[in-house]
Amino acid sequence: MRSRGALEELGLVLSILLGVLLTYYLVRADVVSLTYGNIPLANLYLRAVPDPSSPFTSRSPEVVTSVIWDQRGYDTYFETSVLFIAIIGVLYLAGLGGGQGNSSVSTVIPRVIAKILFPVIVAVSVSVALHGHLTPGGGFQGGSIFAVAPFLYLLVFGRRMLEGKGFRANALVFARSLAVFLITVVGSIVLVVGLLTGVPAFLFQNQPKPQLSPIGYPAYVVLPWGGIFLFSGTLMILNVLEFTAVSTGFTLALVIIDTVTGGRE
Amino acid sequence: MIAEALFYLIVFAVGVTIGVSIYGIIVRPHIVKKLVLLTILTDAANVMAVLFGYYLRAISPPVYPGGSLEDFAFPSSAQLREFSSISVDPIPQVLIVTAIVIGLAELIFLSLVAYNIGVNYKTLMINKLEVEEE
After folding, report:
1. Does B98 reside within a domain?
2. Residues in chain B within 8 Å Cβ distance of A250
3. How far apart are CA A103 and CA A159, in angstroms?
4. The whole model's pTM is what?
5. Which of the residues B43, B55, B83, B94 would you substitute to probe the A interface, choosing the one with the greatest number of A C-beta atoms within 10 Å?
6. What interface predicted TM-score (ipTM) does this complex get?
């Protein structure tokens, strides 16, 4: 017993030493550096994305969302699929519809706070997702914020109330599958149009690329009463779809875990 | 000077957090503790990735200022060069957005596996799980 404790202390010291060495070599090799500017790859993205004359433009001021959905579209699509498959796996492991746990209701203070906070959280998450191509944020971030609101209801009121609000497992699975399917459709529609009309096009293409592919999504529409509505091609559409996919996926996972563990006893 | 000291302090703290969470994942026998430390390790690695993109002159997020739904003045190349010299690196942020969602999916799956282990074996300690020998 005594020797095991000493061994664990040695392991703790060694792991702290590992952290110190990691820091030292990261700083020493200038991986973490305060004096240099951006690397050339970062400058490429930062200069090409908002610039309408560049062939790699997305016509959007938000570089992060644009890189996620336009320049690295494949990566994000399969990442969404990973989340989808993980939740399908949870469904398989858990089984649906079992466990009618009696969900008790909290006292008045959490109930009032939850009722005040629910619309606020939903409004913030929808705003973050809808403005994802203009301000920091996007579909993932908005969806993750949204999942807090059903979680709050689940903790305070129990699952019965959440299902009364429309967050039923079947509806959530349907919305999630539909969103992932529509992401595929939005990503491949330019390619299909290109194949039908005989011009070159790419999967997950956003803007038209001069000399490579002359077709693509429009960046904005001119409104009939003047002014423009900027949605940066696929970026806003995919943000809304990804918001649906992530928020329903996380809500579904919370509902399943609550079902399996029998709710609050 | 203060900014540099604070930056290296943050890098050091994140490094020690990574070390301690690796230690906990390997040594601690309780599955829930392993899951908690795995989450801490993921978050520490994400913070480290964001720190890679920071430098002292960076005062702007990677968002070109002035965009709204109704109007966006597309910038000239001189404005873009100035923007890219004061903006942080967007690529680590792109990577961690996907890493966070994958980490959450993985956490959901592993917590359900841990729940099943707890139900079937009546224990969550790895070293108390019995192995049936042939």
Report:
1. yes
2. 104
3. 7
4. 0.86
5. B94
6. 0.82
Asked if A22 lies within 8 A of B89 by C-beta distance, the reply is no
Instruction: Answer whether B115 sits within 8 Å of A261, measured CB to CB.
Output: yes
* Tens digit of each residue's pLDDT (9 = 90 or more) over B1-33: 888 888 888 888 998 999 899 988 988 889 999
Domain range enclosing A222 = 66-260
Tell whether A265 is covered by a domain: no
Q: Structurally, how many domains does chain B consist of? A: 1
Domain count, chain A: 1
Q: Is B87 helix (H, G, I), strand (E, B) or coil?
A: strand
Asked whether residue A58 is assigned to any structural domain, the reply reads no
Is B7 part of a structural domain of the chain?
A: yes
Any B CB within 8 A of A13 CB:
no
In tens, the pLDDT along A147-180 reads: 999 988 888 888 778 888 888 888 999 999 999 9
B19 domain residue, yes or no: yes
What is the CATH number for B27? 1.10.287
Show the domain range for B112.
Answer: 2-58+76-122
Residue A1 to chain B, least CA–CA distance (Å): 15
Q: Which residues of chain B does A42 touch, with a Cβ-Cβ cutoff of 8 Å?
A: 53, 84, 89-91
- Do the chains contact at B19 and A22, CB–CB below 8 Å? yes
Residue B128 counted as domain residue:
no
User: Would the CB atoms of B94 and A68 count as touching at under 8 Å?
Assistant: yes
Q: Which of chain B's residues have a Cβ under 8 Å away from the Cβ of A27?
A: 8, 11
Residue A225 in any domain: the answer is yes
